[in-house]
Protein: FAD-dependent oxidoreductase
Amino acid sequence: MTPSTQTPRITRRGFVLGAAGTATLAAASLFGCAPREAPDPTVDETVSCDVLVIGGGAAGTTAAAEAALAGAKTVLIEKTPWLSGSSSLAIGTLYGAGTQLQQAAGIEDTPEGLLAYFMERGGDKLDPAMQQFCAEHFGETIDWLSGELNVPFKEKISKKGTDTIARAHNIDDRDEVALAAVEQYAKDAGVDFVFDTQAVELIVNDEGEVEGVLAVQGADKRIRYDAGRTILATGGFCRNEDLIAEYCPDYDGVYTEVGQGCTGEGLEMGLDIGAAYIGHGGTNGILACPVEAGQSKLIDSKAMWVDSSGNRFVNEGGQTHDIYYTVAHFPDQSFYAVYDQPMVDTLSDKLANAFQLGLDQGVFTQGDTVAEAAEALGIDGAALQAQLDAYNAMAAAGEDTQFGKKADNLVAIETGPFYVLTMGVCTHGSFGGYHVNTDFQVLDETDTPIPNLYAAGEVCCGEFIYDDYPAGGCGLNYAYTSGRYAGKNAAAAVQA
Structure:
């Protein structure tokens, strides 16, 4: 296996004290950070279960459902008042091969082909067993969602990343449809959902075995959860500036749109008891518009995009994730889209309002020439004018000889007034976390499983993704797939 790397870091206690408020401060002072033989006698309640799941996103909800279906008494605790995590905000694409949906669409594909693609996209630098596991089971998970759970998928299957085969299966709406279906599946199986309850510390006995967690519910109710097996599905850490600076320093300061709960304390709880970290500094991200959240349609591939020096730098119709990595490494983490008046005239009412907001805020500028609009943002106007002239010449010829943009998107930008729109990037996930095996047991620094501790989802995605995102839909499928098997395996282990 690839050796895990761990550098000096902020402790979980430091995170709790710095970010979670006085109620959690009191709880942290009460519980402490060192393993103990018995719980503090002043806890308000003790709850026992076979399997405890921490985190209510796609990974955690799926893990809880599978554990309960296997006959384990299962409790899921979630620190927010609802099912959250980044999966609740996801568009709803899952990557996989050999699915029934592919067969219906006439697409011939196999898990072996998907494995080859994963290995091309950084998987060769990681444990090959996990790459194979994901390639073999991602399609199975899509069939489970579309078949057993009746989650609606679109007929069209898309190509993503640099893949030449259509493997991106798109939910007919957003992932919240799938998450709601899995939640009902879990409730029907008997999972006890407990909200507004934050895990504070893993309970570890003298033999190094995890026995559950100490948690705080609401303002100050202290609960001890005794569990035969514990599954951490607490998501990533993009909302923890210290952890991003430490583990993903190239993306320090990048704006994020992940779920509010992705603050990293779930990862730190395990690191505090000796769990190993694996990650190589990457993040998942998209292009961002300062006046609209998400993948705004103002980020138009028919525009010309330039960097802060006024130079075109990319095929505007290329893969969003790959462009994200380029822009995130620019000194200002920004790029600029050039519009002309006909492009503005075609905007919907909603986009027109957002466009006007950008002008009002000064992040979009207007000029009789593109040079004038550029200089209002501090960009070299002459350089940008030269780039636009060259771009329009390629549009007239019908071929982008610079970056290979498709002819359909290569449209001349030549009718003033002209506009230059400031754009940027935002993170949608962190690539790094617990070192796990294909049973989703959490490993220590010697690659030995920590007794009774499992993980699923983004909190352990560094085992599957190296540093660049292989293709849209890989992270979401990893959440559901790792959740399915972490739940099954934890239930089997506690019942053995």
About this structure: Residues 1-39 have pLDDT under 50 and may be disordered. The chain has two domains: 43-281+430-493, 283-425. Residues 474-495 form the longest helix (22 residues). The CA atoms of residues 337 and 355 lie 12 Å apart.
